[in-house]
Amino acid sequence: MNRRSRHFRSIRFRLAVWYTLALAAGLVLFAITIWIAMRHSLIRDIDNTLAARQRSIESFLNSELKEPGVNLAEELNEYWSALPANTFIRVEDQNGALVFTSSAASPKPDDAYRLLTGKISVAGRPWTVSLAAPTDDVELLLQRLRLLLIALAPLVVAIAAIGGAWLGRRALKPVDEIVGAARSIGIENLSARLTVPQTGDELQRLSETWNAMLSRLEMSVKRLARFTADASHELRTPLAVIRTTAEIASRKPRSTEAYRDALNQIVSESERMTRLVEDLLFLARCDDHGVEIPLSALDLSPIVDDVCARMASFAESRAIRLAHCVPESRVEVWGNEPSLRQLMLVLIDNAVKYSRSGGEVQVHLRRSDQDIRLEVRDCGPGIPDSDLPHIFERFYRASQARELASQGAGLGLSLAAGIAQHHRAAIEVASVPDQGSTFSVVFPLTWRESEP
Question: Which residue among 14, 208, 251, 347 is buried most deeply as judged by most CB within 10 Å?
Answer without folding.
Answer: 347
